[in-house]
Amino acid sequence: MAVWYSLLLVLGMSLFVYLGAGLLGLQAIFGIVIPYAAILVFLIGFTMRVLGWAKSPVPFRIPTTAGQQKSLDWIKPSKIDSPYTTWGVVGRMAMEVLLFRSLFRNTKAEITEGKLAYGSNKWLWLGGILFHYTFLTIVIRHLRFFTEPVPYFVQVLDNIDGMLQIGSPVIYQTDVILVAALLFLLIRRLVSPQLRYLSLPADYFPLFLILGIALSGIMMRYFAIFKVDLMSVKVLAMGLATFNPTVPEGIGVMFYIHLFFFSMLLAYFPFSKLMHLGGVFLSPTRNLPNDSRMVRHVNPWNAPVKVHTYEHYEDDFREKMIEADLPVEKQA
Amino acid sequence: MSQAPKPEELLRVSHIPPKKDWMDPRVDLIPGTWGYPGKASSLETLGLPNPREWNPTDEDWKLPPNWKEIIHEGLKERLEKYRSLKVFLDICVRCGACADKCHFFIGSGDPKNMPVLRAELLRSIYRKDFTAVGRMLGTFAGGRELTEDVIKEWFYYFHQCTECRRCSLYCPYGIDTAEITIVVRELLNLIGVNIDWILGAAANCYRTGNHLGLEPHTFKGNIDFLVDDIEEYVGVRLNPTFNRKGAEVLFIAPSGDVFADPGIFTYMGYLMLFEHIGLDYTISTYASEGGNFGLFTSQETMKRLNSKMYAEAKRLGVKWILGGECGHMWRVLHQYMDTMNGPADFLEVPKSPLTGTVFDNAKSTKMIHIVEFMADLIHHGKLKLNPKRNDYLRTTWHDSCNVSRGMGMFEEPRYVLKSVCNNFFEMPENTIREQTFCCGGGTGLNAGEFEYLRMMGGMPRAFAVKHVQEKHGVNLLVNVCALDRAILPPLMDYWAPEVAVSGLTELVANALVMEGEHDRPTDLRGEDIPGLEGDE
Questions:
Q1: A54, A197, A275 member nearest B111 (Cβ)
Q2: Do the chains contact at A306 and B340, CB–CB below 8 Å?
Q3: Residues A198, B117: C-beta atoms closer than 8 Å
Q4: What distance in Å separates the CA atoms of residue A297 and residue B341, rounded to the nearest whole number?
Q5: What is the pTM of this model?
Q6: CA–CA min distance B404, chain A (Å)
Q7: Where would I find the beta strands (DSSP E) of chain A?
Q8: Which residues of A touch B133 (CB under 8 A)?
Q9: What is the pLDDT of residues A110-157, one digit of tens each?
Q10: DSSP symbols for B342-356
Q11: How far apart, in whole angstroms, are the C-alpha atoms of residue B95 and residue B116?
Q12: φ and ψ at A164, to 5 degrees?
């Protein structure tokens, strides 16, 4: 059910744009108002969310240690997986954020013929990392619409991405990989009984939405009937970027669908699991050093508690202690 | 083993989820997988709310009339107190990488034992009550109504998590189910929903200083028995001191080692080691528990129980504290103690009186692990060892969860074990070190009535042992945790018969050449050592 709801929602959204920007001619709404609103929601929402997390303190230093602690001089500590210096933590976080270190450990447990076996299982890591990096590359490539002159690194990236020189216009490898990775992430959710069982609409919706962004973009670029006038698109994009928005005539409706999907992604972002982008940096099991016995960690809400003091304890057991030759503070 | 079916039956576990939607909170309380409720007297000792007689199988759990409000306010307070909770509730993408990392899911196949879904049991309530989207869209946004059935579901599934943190290792964002479980157990304690094996132990620790409830004279008496055993098997009479002011070191071990087989052999090992090196130490009857049952109750209870260590060290005027072999104990000592009850500025940085090694890794807490201490002694040649005395043993090493993923102690125990035993074989790499599997009974799930659950949850650990048993003839599973020493023996009987369980210091002591010892044809358990007759 969750998957159908999500798919219908995304299809409904494209119909909505088709009606609004295509038939009713509300290009100014879809080309200017909605994108600006979406960016605002994204920026404010994202910031609020991160500030909300930051407002709650980290009472205890609780890294998940994944390597040898720093103890005796002659035992080699694991500087990254069990970091004990700031640089170690930076290294661990970089590995986590840039290389998905933890996901790379993934294994698959299976019981076969009375034995429990663990196979290496890097598919999720591969699908995940390909999705994230191709998406990032594509977003950066889009800077060519928002800049004049187009920065050198964007041009270089563009050239590399089209390196294979297949087709006309040249096919970007990232377009192909992004769609493949998204389909992999979607299909694995549907095929694995456990994943299908736990998946929510909130898991399918972003996949369909990003797939919608990718496919609408691909259709505009590679299929003649959806072609849009790139010069006009650039005028609109530059207008948005310079806060001097205009809506040129003659941009095809496919562009507005593409733009609307992306706007929706931005607006949806702060309220969804996509916030893992910000949250991963604040995860206390990853971003703290394993040095709790070396350096005291302070808990801001640490308050006195009622304890059973030694004096109280001795009062409870004094006679028995004396009888057992245990030293006491006060004789009976 | 009445509650658990035969191993062959358990092996036919299915991991395919049921038809019933997970959002339906109703649970079947399968016998052998849930614990008896906390006794009213234990709650009263600790001053915890809603002491009463009740039974999980009853329809009415006798919750306070405003229980919903208490839970809501309790969750709100904890969201403001713990960034971990807030972030972990918000950012899970349900990728499922954690699912088959949980020993309880592997063993039971129950989808709510997938860490991701276990967290959703709380997350769904959080969404409904604390997020705008969840409030508006309800079920569609993954929100659930908080009902009594949810409380019952929490009671069941958050006592099927041992806070071992294996899932957190694989999570791309480090989401730690232990943090979720800790908070839910705190919430449940606010309305008097808890289990006796934890609450009884915590109350005992509070009153007598140890979870067995041994009063001071009995505690000392138990150790005197161990001293007698050492005299019989080794031929040396030891005189440990108790509550002695002015000792250099305060020694604190899990109290299970004072009382239960095979932990007592480890305790005999501690005593022999200290005698061997002439350590100036004392044992406290007040701070007589290393383990901390507060960790399974609430952070406040944890702090109350832990406070005894520093208080006693201060009263006795020792220089530093040495801790015995234990798992959760070391999670608390390593990651919580200094924050909760420090700074320990009245103590000195631990320094080995024999090797002069200064333990800078504990320069703030002033407390070191006995395995760190022993590794240093052996490295400097301060122990007279005859490893041949352990030649009849073919050992493997079980990394206990908490010293692995909550401390990072991997090499020290291996170094010590290899120094005292010539036959050592590692279990498969996906089951050791930071990837180690729980024994199946941590965080207070060691009660008799949890037996079925432990056989399921301990399955991954046991299978790895069985693997080296078949491949290398391993007959001893060595570990550094008191709960392991209690939980692993029946687990081995069930899945890998003929594999015994021991602590590390027991093996060290068995190999120790004590001054003035007589012929030692037996080990510390009083059993003949094969091949040693006439060897010494």
A1: A197
A2: no
A3: yes
A4: 11
A5: 0.95
A6: 7
A7: 107-112, 115-120
A8: 271-272
A9: 888 778 888 888 999 999 999 999 999 999 999 999 998 999 999 999
A10: ---TTS---B-TTT-
A11: 8
A12: -70, -15
